[in-house]
Amino acid sequence: MSASFHDVVRRVGEVPGVAAVLACEQVDSTNDALRRRADAGAIPAGTVLLADTQTAGRGRLGRHWHSPRGLGLYLSWLVRPRGDVAWFPRWTLLGAVAAGAACRDVAGAVVRLKWPNDVVARGRKLGGVLADLRTSAGGPELILGIGLNVEHREDDLPPELRSRATSLSILSGTIMDRADLAASVVQGLVTLGDRLERGDWDGLRERWTALAPGATSGRVRVLDRQGDRGAWTGTAAGLDERGALRVRRDRDGREVAVLDGESVVPLVER
Ligand code: BT5
User: Fold this and answer.
1) pTM for this one?
2) Mean of the pLDDT values across residues 36-50?
3) Of the four, 17, 80, 196, 211, which is 20 to 30 A from 161 by CA?
């Protein structure tokens, strides 16, 4: 059954470890709205901001995130990580594991993660993670945003995304419950976050790798910010300590750590 925004907010509020829930029917971007709340006053780590729609939902590198009202999950979570800032890319992977595992557990979807932030099913994008980090006097502050397509039917997707995106309802053929999914995603964030803060990077790396089979041996094409001009190919070789993707470059056989800001496109070889 389709869940109201009220149900989504209530269920997330019941998840143990959630410090506070901020509910907004409409925002520009949940990441930006949570950042403004944090700027305006003390907000505890573990706060979740949920919106029913976003007018300026953001992807990485200034891209747009399509966020129709009532159909998707749009949330942001505030973290004040204790670890080294160099390990910050780990949190994007953590968000992707929480989102992907929730899609699998609640909706039975067969999902794959694509480094660094994509949740994919049947080769189409189901969701994504956007991590915004800043360092303030109080230490690093991270806002982890998660977007998932849940109740969309095919014609709820804009034409330009129709061949590249999907939703849990399209995948399952039934209407999915956003409230169950939201609670599962947030439970995953809290649990994985606790473990990571206690030093269990290996556990997170294993979970991420289990959902991302292509990341340990798949053929990839790496694009930097210049797009095709700086493109090169290689073979993925798993994650390094920071959460960067290691890729063995065809050109010279050297292993290179690919960091966020570059994109990695899987290559299917004939
Ligand atoms: C992402 O960026 O995948 C990160 C998306 C994060 C969205 C959440 S929603 C809650 C929180 N608040 C925010 O403002 N953002 C976060 P990226 O890898 O750059 O992918 C963006 C690309 O995905 C776009 O350029 C489109 O091609 C495609 N896209 C846009 N909306 C989509 C959607 N709803 N479903 C699937 N693909 C989409």
Assistant:
1) 0.95
2) 93
3) 211
